[in-house]
Amino acid sequence: MPYHNWFQCTRGCGRRYSIYDVVYRCEDCGGLLDVEHDLEALKERSADEWRALFDQRTRSVEWPYGSGVWGKKEWVCPQIALANVVSLGEGNTALLRVERLGREIGLPDLWVKQCGTSHTGSFKDLGMTVLVSVVKQMIADGKPIRAVACASTGDTSAALAAYCAAAGIPAIVFLPRGKVSTAQLVQPIAHGALVLALDTDFDGCMRIVQQVTADRTIYLANSMNSLRIEGQKTVGIEIVQQLGWEVPDWIIIPAGNLGNVSALGRGLLMMKELGLIDRLPRIACAQAANANPLYLSYLTGFREYRPVSAQKTLASAIQIGAPVSYERAVKVLRAFAGVVEQASEDELADAAARADRAGLYCCPQTGVALAALFKLVKKGEILPEHRVVVISTAHGLKFTGFKVGYHERTLADVVARHANPPLELPANVGAVKEAIDRALRTRMIGE
Questions:
Q1: Could you tell me the pTM of the whole model?
Q2: How far is residue 337's CA from residue 157's CA, in Å, rounded to a whole number?
Q3: Is the torsion defined by CA of 81, 75, 394, 223 positive or negative?
Q4: Which fold has domain 95-121+229-407?
């Protein structure tokens, strides 16, 4: 089948580029570029045929179709040579029915999409496999690319470094010094990336990486490059596929640089255009109150938008005040009857702790999404009969300091209602039995 895709200006001026061109904005009007597909060619296969193909490939051992991204290759990057695909088994992450937490909040049909169980521990793998594969193809075709670079709050740098290491391509990462967890910092270091810790925040790193990648031999890997979005859009497709090709009523997603929101919408819209689904879910974006430019714009009906100076937040991966994909995200929210909610530091920490007590192990960004969910349920926006999916963007193990601080009650602006520190006791069986009995009695009373 002659499937193909290309870059096209998001502002509608119509300018097109090859996905193998080193270009990030329209050279005519400055708009961001989206990847567009030849949908008429894709429609030559029926919706039933696409569903059957995707189901057949799920966890296949045939390279590279066992990947959750490359199992949908025709919808992502159809013309790339298979020899240049760089995959680390990304995607196909679990969609968990969260019954206990759902019962607690009066929402029996609650699910969590565990994107943090991907290779490097976050959803960023989904986009990076596509971007690095395209770079490998470009190098094979003779493009003089020396390295791939990104600004990051942690997870993007881990994914870029891992995929570049697998491909044998140098990686450069710009991190805000002292604002990234140790687990996130060590990943690009371990993979051999050049790690530059700058005395600024993410937005400052983003400004510098854009200047550095004006040198076309250093390729930009941030989500303003929509190749990333092409891979990340598969999370929405996976959710629907895992629900037996049924669409949930709501999807709640943490929102920082806003590329993931844009990707979620693009995948679902593509499914609808090709007939695999007949309706769209509603989308709720969740922001930390300390880094909330999208939320503030939403309060004005998106008539006004001003970047903010992002304040320190436990949800460090979304501590972003000037999101590059704002225009894309607003377009998606309007198409999906979307809403935006925010969470304070106490609310996000409390939500993560409640989820952990129900068997999850949430990163603070997922805590923001869950706190937004709790608010939307309380407001009556989300109803008991709704099927809701919360996207968990990273593994909780990448944020051990957040967990320890919560249970030691050392987090600023957090009450830690569910703190559960270890009991320090003498090595005496009587003291141990007394502590066990007291703890079990307290638990029974609490329940």
A1: 0.93
A2: 32
A3: positive
A4: Rossmann fold (3.40.50)
